[in-house]
Amino acid sequence: MLNKVPEVTIWFWVIKILCTTVGESFADWINMKLGVGLVNTAWIFTAVFVVVLGVQLRLKRYAPFPYWLTVVVVSVTGTLYTDILTDQLNVPLWISSAVFSVLLAVVFGVWWLRERTLSIHSVTTLPRESFYWLAVLVTFALGTATGDWTLELTGWSPGVSVLLPLGLIAAITLLWKFGANPVLSFWLAYILTRPLGANIGDWLASPRVAQPGEPTGLALGTFTTSLIFLGLILATVVYLTVTRSDVTETYDATHTPQVTANPRRERIALAGFGLLAVATGALLVWAHSQPHAGPAPEEDTTSTVHLAPGQAVKKFPSKKVDALKALASTSLKDAQSGNAKGAHAAAQSLRDLWDADQASLQPLDNTGWTFIDAQMDQVLKTFGIDHPNPPMSPAEQEAELRTLLTDMR
Predict the structure, then answer these.
(1) At what angle do helices 318-337 and 340-361 cross, to 10 degrees?
(2) What is the per-residue pLDDT across 368-399, written as a single tens digit (0 to 9) for each?
């Protein structure tokens, strides 16, 4: 069997970052804009992942379209698993990062014990390819957890957050050029492309929030961002299909083999990786100690404006209002039936959709948006979402949800 993984050239890293970015943006669009919900989105992409992975595993050699489609889907799937742990099960990000780090170490350990290699240039059998895709899935989950944890610690804006993974990838590349172990260098960079691509997607899609002295998003929205990057991915895959520049046997036929590894340089580079890790940790500790505004709740959770029922959403698109009302109604029904977990999950999805729609709704009617936003915050407060207080009683949750639905009728 021929190698099932493309040659690692600059094209590999370009399209890998593109796939990560579109995966993040597309998942957000389905989850929040279409109101599908986080868990349902995860189920959808898990099913799609099983199908595309089955097609990929049946192939006898590397083919650009099925391979990169699998990368896109696995990037979304791994991200969703981490998001479920964080948003649905309230698992702290540092715990998720630790768990996925251990899990990845286990995958690599079993892979090595069985195959005696972790090199992607040796993915020529079904067991090795299975280990490869399992490792890729865990790296996306790990990259999501560590990336989000970094933002939680630092409070960096979307634009600034791009710089850390980009700088780390550049440093890893320099150490690899110096003589670092290529397999170790590859997997470290592979993990870091996840937070890099996600941060680029957030920077492009997030609204232009007025924060003096801080870079803001470009307000392209998740749908537009997804379309742009899907187009770039398609163009790149077509190019690779025509030129075959990322096919291993083609690359090997036109390039001289790499020089044998230098053990001394590998040891020095390994020490360099250690210093890089220490420096990154020190940077995060310093950034965490600086004053910064995290995703804390608004101090003023009441509105000084009083509007008649339905007046606040009069200028908003009916489809968007209907999607919000559907989630609020689901949360209310679950709360009434005693399904606390379901009510909490629906309230979180309601929060996500409302936040995602801010850029499009607020310009239409700032007064109406502010009025609903205040009531929305009261609902979230009863569930303990984005607030330090524990969840309130089901009766209080039901009362606030009914008020919200009345305001949006």
Answers:
(1) 160
(2) 888 888 888 889 889 888 776 778 888 888 88
